[in-house]
Amino acid sequence: MSSKGTNKDSILVVGVGNPLRSDDGAGSYVAESIEARGFNKVKVWVTQQLHVEDLESMLSFSKVILIDASTSGPVVDLRQVNGTDHSGLASSHHLSAQTLVNMASNVYHKELNMQLCSIRGSNFEAGDKISPEVLYCAQKAIELICSSIMES
Amino acid sequence: MDNQNKDTNTILISPVTRIEGHAKITIMLDLEGAVKDARFHVNEFRGFEKFCEGRLFTEMPTIAPRICGICPVSHSVASAKACEMIMGIKPTYTGNLLRRLIHIGQNVSSHALSFFHLSSPDFLLGWDSDPAARNILTVADKYPDLALRGIRLRKFGQEISERITGKKIHSMGIVPGGMGYPLTEVNRRALLAWIPEATETVKMGIELIKKYQDDHKEMVSSFANFPSLYLATVGPDGENELYDGKLRFIDENGKILEDQLDCAKYLDYIAERSVDWSYLKYPYYKPYGYEKGFYRVGPLARLNVASRMKTPKAQKEFLNFKSLGNGKPVHGTFYFHYTRLIETLGSIEEAEGILKDPKVTDEDIQTIGRANFYEGVGSSEAPRGTLFHHYVVDEGGRLTKVNLLIATGQNNPAMNRSVFEVAKQYVHGKDVKEGALNRVEAAIRCYDPCLSCSTHAIGIMPMVIEIKDHLGETINVIKRD
Does the interface ipTM go beyond 0.95? Predict the structure, then answer.
C-alpha cells in the first residue's frame, strides 16, 4: 500500500486478514470479489494487518470500506466507524479501525470516512479454505458493500 | 487493571504493554515486603525451527520473514547468508547494496516504532499519568507534529522495502546470492527525496531524549543500571555494523574478550539453558559459564561494543554517548532509547550514501549457485540485536536441523535482571501504584523485545504482574486484558 496521487472521488476497499488462517481469509475473499466486479473509481487493497502508516494513503480516498473476519458479533454487518476506542497501542503489529479513525483526527486533523464490514468466522486454524457458512455470509457482505459503493 | 488475592507477597504484571508479543512479570517479596527476586515469563511457543525441517534450504529466505512482521528483513538476510554458506557463493556488489538498503529501511522503521509510538508516551505524558491515556493516541493529541513525524519515519523505512520488492512487510526479494529485484531509477530518486525529512525527525527524537536525560539525570542513570557483557557485529576496524561483519564480545569494563569472530563459530561462544518458568531460553557467553556469562545485544550493546560509527552525524552523537561512560561501557538500560536513535541517524546517513552509489540501480543483482556443503550459518544485526540462522542439510538440500538464535532471547537474562533492579527501586510491599508497575514494564520496553519473534508464538497472550509473599503465595495480581 502506498499513497500515489489523490483519489478524492474514489472508494478504497481493504480486505484485512490472513488467508492461511481459514475464515480469517474472508476479508481478502470479499475484497477480491469486489475487485472482480470492475467498479469505476474503486481501488482494492488486501492486507494482513492495518498499520498506522496506511492512514496517509487512506485519507486520500472519499471513503474507505474495511472488511475483516470477526470472532463475535453479528454474522455479517456493515457499519460506520466512529473514533471511540482510545485504548491506543498495546502492541504495534496491528491497529483497530477505531484507532485509525482517531489517529486521522488527532494527527492529520482530517475525518476518515470509514465503514467496517465484519463477517463472523468460526474456524481460524491453519488452512486456506473458508467455512461454507462463512462463504454464505461473505456473499451477503459483497451485496452490502456493492450497495454502499453504488450509493456513493 | 484489577487487583486480586489481597490477603496474601508476589506481584504479577500481565500483559506487559507496548512491546511486541506478550508476557508476564512475577515479583517476589521477602518477609518485610522488600523485593527479593523478579521474573519475566514468556508463555508463547511457536516452534518455527521444527516445522522448517524437511524443507529445501532455498525456501528458508522466503519462510524466515514470516517469523516476524517487525524484523522480517533481518531474518531474510541471516537466512540468505546461511544458504550462501551452504552453496559456497557470495552475493553480487549490487545485490549486497540493495540488501543493505532494505535492512536499513527495516531498522529505521522498527526503531521509529519503538521510540515514537511505544516508548514516547512515558517520556511525554509521564510515568504516573493516567494509564488509560498513556499511549500514542494521547501523544498524537498533545504532540501531533511529533506523532506525525514518527509515523512518517516508519513509513520511510517501509517504503524502502516497498520500492525495491513491491512489499513493505514480509518482502520476498532477498535470495541466496543477492536480490530478486533491482532498484529502478525512479524509485532511487523517490527514496533519496526522503532523506532530509527523515534526518530532521531523528534529530528531533535525539533532542527529545537528550533533554529528558538531562532533566531526569538521577532516574535515567539509576534505571536498571547493572554491569553485563555485550555482543555485537563490527566492521574490520571495529566500526558499528548492522548488515555484515564479524562478532565482538566485550566485558563489563569494555575489555575486548573476542574480536572478529566468524558467526559460523557462534556455538563455540554461546550456550543456552532452559528455565522452567519461561519458553524463552537463557543464553550466555560460554567461556564465563551460566552464572557470570550473561550478555546484552541490541542498540546499547552495539554502541558499547563499537569503536566508532561509520558516518559523521552519528559519530558526533556516538562521542557524546561514549562520554556518559567516561570511556567505559554505559550500563544504564534507559540508554537503549538514545542509542536506538543514534543508530537510526547513522542508518539514514548510510542509506543516502547507498542511494548515491552509481551501481545501486545495476541489474547484476544475483549470483547463482547450488548446494555444495552440508551446513551454513548466517547472522545479521536485527533491530533488537544479533540474530543467527543455522541450517544443516542432507544430500538433497533438505533441512535436517534448524537453529534460530534470536536477539530478544539473548537479552532474556538481562531483561530479567532489569525487571529485578527496577522492582527493587520502585516496588515496596504488595500495594503497588500503577506508575511503579509501569516503570517495571518500561525496563522491558527499553529492550523493545519481540516475544512472538523469539519464541514464535501463536495467538495473543495476556499480560499480568503477580506479587508473591515470602512463602510463595500470590498476594496481588495486576492484570491487563
Answer: no
The nearest CA of chain B is from the CA of A78 a distance in Å of: 25
Distance (Å, whole) CA B238 – CA B260: 8
Residues of B in contact with A92 (CB under 8 A): 18, 20, 70, 113, 117-118
Report CA B3 to chain centroid distance, whole Å.
32
What stretch of H or E contains B27?
strand B24-29
Chain A residue nearest residue B20, CA to CA: A91
Among A2, A49, A92, select the one facing B117 at the smallest CB separation: A92
Q: Which of A89, A106, A108 shows the shortest C-beta gap to B117?
A: A89
Please check whether residue B162 lies inside any domain of the structure. no
CB B218 within 8 A of CB B332: no
How many C-beta neighbours within 10 Å does residue A7 have? 18
Beta bridge partners of B283: B272
| Orientation angle between helical segments B185-215 and B336-355, nearest 10 degrees | 160
Residues 6+ apart with CB under 8 A from B51: none
- At the topology level of CATH, where does A7-151 sit? Rossmann fold (3.40.50)
Cell of A1: 500500500
B159 touches chain A (CB under 8 A): yes
Domain assignment present for residue B333? The answer is: yes
Which pTM was predicted?
0.85
- Put simply, the answer to whether A86 touches B132 (Cβ < 8 Å) is yes
Nearest CA in chain B to A94: B69
User: pLDDT digit string (tens) for B217-269?
Assistant: 999 999 999 999 999 999 999 999 999 999 999 999 999 999 999 999 999 99
Does B203 reside within a domain? no
Instruction: Give the number of other CB atoms < 10 A from CB of residue A21.
Output: 18
> B95-128 pLDDT, tens per residue?
999 999 999 999 999 999 889 988 888 888 888 8
Q: What kind and span of H or E run contains B402?
A: strand B399-405
* Residue A16, CA distances (Å) to A10, A47, A71, A94, B13 in order: 19, 5, 14, 11, 31
The least confident of A46-55, B231-240, B450-459 is B450-459
* In chain A, domain spans: 7-151
Distance from CA of B150 to the nearest CA of A (A): 10
Interchain pair A107, B147: CB under 8 A: yes
Burial of B166 (0-12, 13-18, 19+ CB in 10 A): exposed
Tell the burial category of A75 from Cβ atoms under 10 Å away from its Cβ (0-12, 13-18, 19+). Answer: middle
Q: At what angle do helices B336-355 and B312-324 cross, to 10 degrees?
A: 160
Please determine, for residue B11, whether its predicted confidence score (pLDDT) is greater than 70. no
Interface of B with A in 80-139 (CB under 8 A): 113, 117-118, 121, 132-138
Domains: count for chain B: 1
Distance, in angstroms, between B256 CA and closest chain A CA? 36
Q: Range of B272's domain?
A: 226-343
Chain mean position to CA B345: 16
Instruction: Single out the residue of A147, A152, A144 nearest to residue A76, CA to CA.
Output: A144
CB atoms within 10 A of CB B36: 17
Closest residue in A to B69 (Cα) is A93
In a domain, B262, yes or no: yes
Q: What is the DSSP letter of B428?
A: B
